[in-house]
């Protein structure tokens, strides 16, 4: 109990950052589930969403800037899919992956060009930045909102996948492209919807994350992107609940390590975890036993 | 009525179809028999728009469907029940049927066809909420046929529906095919089980290495010496 009270600020921060990782991790895991592709550009898209917010919020009120950022990120995600991945649909998986790495660098370097490499200050969103006190621990409102919002979004997504027609099509396409086509399903449309959802969640994640960390740099996407990716692998890549649980575990552990005054090791922890998972249970917590298509 | 003229297809560097002519008139069961690798599946896949064609035309009721998208082929009422069943293992039986009706929006019609499929295959009704991956091979084949019927096809193409099934189940499947024909659906059937296929066919084609070498009414081919020797093992 003592440990809990002492570490409460860290646990809260962990839950919060875990939710932010989760929102990114879902994008990785959904795209992997359908295309069997690790979308390396996903983390950088998260960073771009942050930068766009910086520039847009400079000229319009924040409540208009938020929807603009979300729409921009969704369009960016779909454009990347159409331009960089769709033409390679029947190419070997390795080619698509290299294309994804290319897009990742393109986004980072464009951001470097635009910002001149300077850290941009993220605009303050008043109701996210408000300070609240829980059991003696001071924290920002965003810390409390993040996990709630994440869980609501995940529930919404799971319901969408389970009960709607497009959700059923997504499950079918993730199993078998050819047979899905024989049902009259437009594969490209289903893939676009996947990118819309992934980008939408990344945009929300970006707003929450940068409200907490306040600075955006061209490389700001890599670390959260990598951690979200580890979370997706930890949960079993392709599984949405897996990615969410993985993300919360990583977020919380990282911050508890910081609470134990071992901050220098907090990043190392995540990657050690990745190595251990890959050695002990490569399919992750909820991974498909048989990844190959039947 | 479907009619194919002079169809050439290159598939994986192989000249898989070398000028095929084939007709599926209304109200008939047509079968396509031949050895493995003769190009039977490729013929069906090219009708569905899954493989690119280099030459030839495919006409469906006076409409040229040679190069249209798979989705539009399905929209035209042509459906393929693929080889190896290919049901979606982590969708329920009911969802597999519903996904067969993916392009349809008529709720009542879909429900009616679902009831019809459950009538044809009472076993599917019992297993409505089970994941398709947990069904036996024969049940999966029934589900695959039912799923194909859910798109309200005018032409149903079946690729090896009896493959790997027990003789009793095969008998069931063939009885159902006749019933489907009686319901006014044209059937194009590919079979390795040449005897069973020829028995129910109005007309049949024999394929060898990408060409059609023989054709005639099913009963006639059944008694043809060459067919007997090559495909009926007599």
Distance between the termini of chain B: 34 Å
Top-tier CATH class of chain A: Mainly Alpha
- How much of the sequence lies in strands of chain B comes to 25-35%
The interface involving the most residues is between:
A-B, 16 and 22 residues
Tally the beta strands of chain A: 4
Uncertain spans of chain A = none
CATH architecture of chain B: 3-Layer(aba) Sandwich
Task: Describe this protein's structure.
The complex is a heterodimer of chains A (294) and B (234). Chain A is built from 13 helices and four strands. Chain A has 294 residues and is mostly helical. In chain A, α11 packs across α12. Chain A is globular, with a radius of gyration of 19 Å. The termini of chain A are far apart. Helix content of chain B is 38%, strand content 26%. A six-stranded mixed β-sheet of chain B has the order 6-7-8-3-9-10, with helices on both faces. The longest helix of chain B is centred in the last third of the chain and has 16 residues. The chains are: A mainly alpha (294), B alpha/beta (234). At the A-B interface, α8 and α9 of A face α2 and α3 of B.
Quick rundown:
With 294 residues, chain A is mainly alpha-helical. Chain A has helices spanning 2-6, 8-35, 42-57, 62-85, 93-115, 126-129, 141-163, 165-175, 177-182, 187-213, 222-235, 240-259, 266-280; strands at 120-121, 131-134, 137-140, 215-216.
Write out key terms for the chains shown:
heterodimer, A: 294 residues, mainly alpha, ABC transporter involved in vitamin B12 uptake, BtuC, two-stranded antiparallel sheet, globular, B: 234 residues, alpha/beta, Rossmann fold, 6-stranded mixed β-sheet, 4-stranded antiparallel β-sheet
List the helices and strands and how they pair.
The complex is a heterodimer of chains A (294) and B (234).
Chain A: H1 2-6, H2 8-35, H3 42-57, H4 62-85, H5 93-115, E1 120-121, H6 126-129, E2 131-134, E3 137-140, H7 141-163, H8 165-175, H9 177-182, H10 187-213, E4 215-216, H11 222-235, H12 240-259, H13 266-280
Helix pairs in contact in A: 2-7, 2-10, 2-11, 2-12, 3-4, 3-5, 3-10, 3-11, 4-10, 7-8, 7-10, 8-10, 11-12, 11-13, 12-13
Chain B: E1 2-11, E2 14-24, E3 29-34, H1 40-47, E4 55-60, E5 63-64, H2 70-75, E6 78-81, H3 93-100, H4 107-120, H5 122-126, H6 137-149, E7 155-159, H7 167-182, E8 186-191, H8 194-200, E9 203-208, E10 211-216, H9 218-222, H10 225-231
Parallel strand pairs in B: 3-8, 3-9, 6-7, 7-8
Antiparallel strand pairs in B: 1-2, 1-4, 4-5, 9-10
